[in-house]
Design goal:
heterodimer, A: 4-stranded antiparallel sheet, B: about 190 residues, alpha+beta, 4-stranded antiparallel sheet
């Protein structure tokens, strides 16, 4: 009787414990991407965040993957904040959502194993951060205001000179 | 006899000097080169200033516990908007590189001296800490916000005010002419 009770408990723990594994999420996420193409030579993408692991032990080493390319994750001195950043040409930095997948050691190893063997089955990232970016522009209307003013003045002048020439015909 | 003795002494000295030089550095070590680039065409007061750090490992070993420190984040004339400074990375493999970007905002218009950032890392298995300095831009002037707006902003409000001021100047003579025309103008009869 006691043995079967212990067996039940053990099997319950075996089923439940993977779900109790460290599953962290991001909090205080700060996103940035360059919008002013006059001031900046290249577009910078930046995402910084803190980890919320529900009181459990926080992983020290994180890895980031963007478009299947690995990117290193910088950690602040006190270990509480993390940052992912990269730089691209303005034209290459197209408008869209950039998905940053964050892995810890275990999930990263699983990702690399899945990639090496060519299969799609892996644990998946800890979490993803979506960076919404609009291509950096020269700021302002797409027609220069001076151009609009000159066109307006020419139209008024043309209308007035039309009327004037009609008057002269009389 | 004397020459042979002299030759012996020379050979012994040669061995000692080469052994002294060779003895210290055993094993491969990492070597980091750091470039600090300002990604701005112009540096303007109260506008974003982006700095990109590129760290390359040109040595043969992995650099561990890499720390990047820059005094610019603590300076009174700069405000850190985005990014973290100082930061650490756990490892940079040989031949690998890392980039790190921060966004700041200049608060003052006095010329700013961009000094080197400092990167310290553990270069080899013995745990030797090395310090390397990045490239430095030097003294750069910071543009006034008003001057930048005068050159580069679209001036929409200025043109709108100009248009509004012009309307009475154009409309009043036009209305005067139109009222007199509608009173006295008779259209010419068409020739049949």
């Amino acid at each position: 009787m006691a043995v079967s009770w212990h067996l039940c408990l053990f099997s319950l723990l075996v089923i439940v414990s993977p779900c109790l594994g460290v599953k962290c999420s991001a909090k205080s996420v700060s996103r940035y991407s360059t919008s002013n193409a006059i001031l900046e030579i290249e577009t910078t993408f930046l995402a910084s965040f803190q980890l919320d692991c529900g009181g459990k032990e926080k992983p020290e080493q994180l890895h980031a993957i963007i478009n299947d390319k690995p990117l290193s994750v910088a950690r602040s001195e006190d270990g509480s904040k993390f940052q992912v950043s990269w730089v691209e040409e303005h034209k290459a930095a197209t408008t869209g959502i950039y998905k940053i997948d964050i892995y810890d050691d275990a999930s990263y190893a699983s990702y690399r194993k899945a990639k090496r063997s060519g299969s799609n089955v892996s644990d998946g990232p800890l979490f993803s951060i979506n960076l919404d970016h609009k291509t950096a522009s020269k700021q302002g209307l797409w027609l220069q205001t001076e151009f609009i003013a000159v066109v307006g003045i020419i139209l008024i002048w043309w209308y007035a000179s039309n009327i004037k020439s009609k008057l002269h015909e009389l | 006899m004397k020459s042979i003795l002299f030759l012996c002494v020379l050979i012994v000295c040669g061995f000692i000097s080469t052994s002294i030089v060779r003895g210290e550095n055993a094993g491969p070590s990492a070597r980091l080169l750091v470039a600090k680039n300002v990604l701005n065409k112009m540096i303007v007061e109260n506008k974003e200033l982006t700095i990109n750090y590129e760290i390359y490992n040109v040595g043969q070993a992995t650099a561990t516990e890499v720390e990047l420190k820059d005094d610019i984040a603590d300076d009174d004339s700069m405000k850190l908007l985005q990014g973290i400074l100082p930061v650490t990375w756990d490892r940079i493999p040989p031949g690998g590189n890392i980039t790190h970007a921060v966004v700041l905002k200049p608060i003052k218009t006095e010329p700013y001296n961009f000094t080197s950032a400092r990167v310290s890392y553990t270069a080899n298995e013995d745990g030797d800490r090395q310090l390397t300095l990045s490239t430095a831009l030097g003294l750069v002037g910071i543009m006034n916000e008003k001057d930048y707006d005068r050159k580069h902003s679209p001036h929409v409000t200025d043109w709108a005010i100009f248009g509004l001021l012009n309307i009475p100047i154009i409309l009043i003579p036009y209305l005067m002419w139109y009222s007199s025309k509608s009173k006295y103008y008779t259209p010419k009869p068409k020739k049949l």
